[in-house]
Hints:
With 221 residues, the protein is of the alpha+beta class. It has a single domain, classed as Up-down Bundle (Methane Monooxygenase Hydroxylase, Chain G, domain 1). It is built from eight helices and four strands; from the N terminus they run E-H-E-E-H-H-H-H-H-H-E-H. A four-stranded antiparallel sheet has the order 1-3-2-4, with helices on both faces. Strand 2 and strand 3 form a beta hairpin. The radius of gyration is 17 Å and the shape is globular. The two termini are 27 Å apart. 41% of the residues are buried.
Amino acid sequence: xxxxxxxxxxxxxxxxxxxxxxxxxxxxxxxxxxxxxxxxxxxxxxxxxxxxxxxxxxxxxxxxxxxxxxxxxxxxxxxxxxxxxxxxxxxxxxxxxxxxxxxxxxxxxxxxxxxxxxxxxxxxxxxxxxxxxxxxxxxxxxxxxxxxxxxxxxxxxxxxxxxxxxxxxxxxxxxxxxxxxxxxxxxxxxxxxxxxxxxxxxxxxxxxxxxxxxxxxxxxx
Length: 221
């Protein structure tokens, strides 16, 4: 199985965001990764918005690698085996999801509404978030390690690696592919917006959401 770790990257040498707006954006970012991974059939791990020395947050998922051999370099995507084409599209969508969710639901400019902090308080009362299963020690340690691991690739680097695998380089064809993926991603996130907001609010309330708690929150439409 392939373990994927996605993260909210901060500038080199800077400290992770600690203000309310930045933390809310991080929560939406990480929730976007998890919700899209779940919607596309991957096993999801947990997520955290407890900042480390390098990153503001981290999330994890597991994606099964294709059994077929890797397609030959330069082979048009349409000629790839279906399982490899699905794997590449799924992986790209998951890594693109954090940025796109944050831009859709917690933009850098303007007021975030409705405020996730208020949603977190409402969810805490309505869903009794404190009764959710606590993240296991191993989960906390793994996610905490992700927020402090400078060697962990940024989401954009992962997407660039997928583009090189699929298209060999950034070309007009690869840019068209990424635009199509983004359109599909926006539609998926709009469909799953309640889950994104619910999971983000839980992360804001709890700091770290383990795999079991995330699965319970994702059971609801």
